[in-house]
Amino acid sequence: MPRSNDIDESFRNIEIDFEAFVTNIRISTMALKLFPNVQELYISYMAPHNCEFNIYTAILRDMLGLPICDSLQRLEFQITRERNVRKLTHYWCATDWVPPADPSYSEFYAKLSPENQEFLGKEQNNFTINKVMSEIVPKFPALTEARIVAHNLPTPMESFSDPLFEKTAFYYLPLSFAPKLEKLRIETEKCQVQGYEGKGWFDNRLLGDVLSRIKDLRVISSHLEGKDIMMLVGKLPHLQHLDLQTIKRIPLFLTTEDYAPFGKLRNLEYMRLPWPSPRRSGSIPAEVMRKWVIGIVDSGLDRLQTVELLGSRYSASKYERTDIDLQFSVQRTEKGSLLDMWGATSKADYADDKGRY
């Protein structure tokens, strides 16, 4: 077992070179003015929690007024929230040793060059971030698609009054300035991240109109509940394409009753969902899901063409899972709707080895 002194030395060896880190982001952002006609932009970086707000606002502030904002049709942000000592996790989970605290923003800021200090600016926090962003976020008149990937990012299915929204929803604010946005991709995982204690401020009205315009939504998250589905249907009534997935196809304790609200999405053409798996019951049988699809088609989803279900089954033990897929294709004729089904259609395909189904 490593001694505390050995770990402290390791920490000093892997500590982030923050000057180089900020310089790289600053220079990359400055280079955007050289590409006025770019239609797709991918921005990815690792953000220590104590300067996450400032990095995001600095990038958007430097984009303000650039021609690229007028030409962008697709914008993607991928942010990894990390502690400065992330590589030592296996040590402080297995021992009583407590890692040194990450430096505060002021400590980071003091070590930066004047150019990088000017780039990041005055420290932002939960209460100032949204007001600042409302003043510096550029307009994206041609943007039709956005993708945001970040830990602890609230999904559109969660309540706007949830504290998580108030503390981390600032990533959504640029979407308020994209009147043509129709396609939204969100990927997130709930986890404990230092620095998100306490409450922030967020004007919920800023996102209401944005979400109501979305026609194509994909969400990958670590959980999904029945109440989330009801919230989604209420916020995004004009969906045509819906793709909900869970990380690593984690089994969810859902039933066909939880999926009932989807019947209100009258414009829906394509739907990909987690295969429902009630508690202690394994995956719902394929034949039951076939009847559910027929039911929602007959209830008024006249445009629905394809339904896909993605799930997993236990193989050998509860710690080994095998992915399972089930697909339905709706064929409409003068005599009514026909349903083709393929994939894991038999009990042997979707039932657990323990005999549950």
Describe the 3D structure:
The chain is α/β, with parallel strands linked by helices and 357 residues long. It has 13 helices and 10 strands. The chain has a 10-stranded mixed β-sheet with strand order 1-2-3-4-5-6-7-8-9-10. Strand 3, helix 9 and strand 4 (183-187) form a beta-alpha-beta unit. The radius of gyration is 23 Å and the shape is elongated. The two termini are 45 Å apart. The model is unreliable at 1-14 and 84-95 (pLDDT under 50).
Short description:
With 357 residues, this protein is an alpha/beta fold. Helices cover 31% and strands 22% of the residues.
> Order of strands across the widest beta sheet?
1-2-3-4-5-6-7-8-9-10
- How far is it from the N-terminal to the C-terminal residue, by CA? 45 Å
Write down the overall geometry. Answer: elongated
What is the helix tally? 13
Strand content: 15-25%
Tally of DSSP β-strands: 10
Unreliably modeled segments: 1-14, 84-95
Please compute the radius of gyration using only Cα atoms.
23 Å
Helices and strands in order:
Layout: H1 4-14, H2 18-30, E1 40-48, H3 52-63, H4 68-71, E2 74-82, H5 89-94, H6 105-110, H7 114-120, H8 129-136, E3 145-149, H9 163-168, E4 183-187, H10 205-213, E5 216-221, H11 226-235, E6 241-246, E7 270-274, H12 286-298, E8 306-315, E9 317-333, E10 336-343, H13 347-350
Parallel strand pairs: 1-2, 2-3, 3-4, 4-5, 5-6, 6-7, 7-8
Antiparallel strand pairs: 8-9, 9-10
Helix pairs in contact: 2-3, 2-7, 3-8
